Amino acid sequence: MEQINFNAFIVREIGKNSFSGAVCETSTQELPDGDVLIRVHYSSLNYKDALSATGNRGVTKNYPHTPGIDASGVVVESKSDKVKPGDEVLVTGYDLGMNTSGGFGQYIRVPAGWVVKLPPTMSLKESMILGTAGFTAGMSVFQIIRDISTEDGEILVTGATGGVGSIAVSLLSALGYAVVGVSGKSDAHYFLKSLGAKEIISREDAVDKSGRPVLKGRWAGVVDTVGGDILATAIKSTLSWAVVTCCGLVASADLPVNVFPFILRGVKLIGIDSQNCPMDHRLAIWKLFADGWKSSYPDGFYKEISLKELDGNISLILEGKQKGRVLVDLIS
């Protein structure tokens, strides 16, 4: 296929520990080898993208680089019988946007094993309003609803205004659960109430400082997106046979908790790895979103930006000032 020139948000190292991103023209010849060439229509901005865009070597080793761990679009060229030109598809996770040129470019080339055919009842735009954050929330909610009923008690969602947290709040509320959100944002109450949250508590109230190994049980389930002391307190505050999922470490990668909640209350702690989720489970979660989990989101749940607006929004997400989801439009 002939070379195609296109625009991408490319991050370059401009000095020691100094990085800068800008929209530049590149070409499909610069893309890595792969089975499937996709014309990207939409992507989304995630915390991991912000880390990649600011030179975090734990996410991206080599620069220049195009971040974007999410992409949805149309197949242009395929060496695989799994998809054909014209198919609408999405890619989330794996190495996309980490060390493989990602969804902040108008074209990506990836292995066929990364590609999911878009469910027929879902649009390319809807899939990226969800993106990795929505998929991670979906994996977490799937684990909760397998063992916990709406009558068993309240579900705590930490980091509730973030991408994963806000979708988890919306989804669990729509499924009939009483959801309590944790947020450090003073203006979060209206936003979280509009998503269906029953109650909002502050970060300070979500952290126990008593040092006790277990606390009075309140939560039948927990979707944790932040880690650290908030996760430890949530675990200590669970009811018997509660299910706790964890997917983030923005507060801390350490977990200061002992075994008592697990051996006295039978609490399950389940790690969520959306990056390397097996394809059969991946397809099942996307099908749930396309069918039974379809929902409409309130005003302000997501905002739509162009590639040129990425820089400012990357700063916001790193400062913890972003609410909901950021959809990146690569076709307008």
Description:
The protein is an alpha/beta fold. The chain has 2 domains: 5-118 and 299-329, Medium-chain alcohol dehydrogenases, catalytic domain (Quinone Oxidoreductase, Chain A, domain 1, Alpha-Beta Complex); 133-271, 3-Layer(aba) Sandwich (Rossmann fold), CATH 3.40.50.720. The chain is built from 8 helices and 15 strands. The chain has helices spanning 47-53, 124-147, 163-174, 188-195, 228-236, 260-265, 279-290, 310-318; strands at 5-15, 18-27, 36-44, 70-78, 88-92, 107-110, 116-117, 154-157, 179-182, 199-201, 219-224, 238-246, 268-271, 302-305, 325-329. The strands form 3 sheets. Strands 3, 4, 5, 6, 7, 14 and 15 form a 7-stranded mixed β-sheet that branches. Strand 11 (219-224), helix 5 (228-236) and strand 12 (238-246) form a beta-alpha-beta unit. 46% of the residues are buried. The model has no long low-confidence stretch (mean pLDDT 95).
SSE topology:
Layout (H helix, E strand, L loop, with lengths): L4 E11 L2 E10 L8 E9 L2 H7 L16 E9 L9 E5 L14 E4 L5 E2 L6 H24 L6 E4 L5 H12 L4 E4 L5 H8 L3 E3 L17 E6 L3 H9 L1 E9 L13 H6 L2 E4 L7 H12 L11 E4 L4 H9 L6 E5 L3
Parallel strand pairs: 8-9, 8-11, 9-10, 11-12, 12-13, 14-15
Antiparallel strand pairs: 1-2, 3-4, 3-6, 3-15, 4-5, 5-7
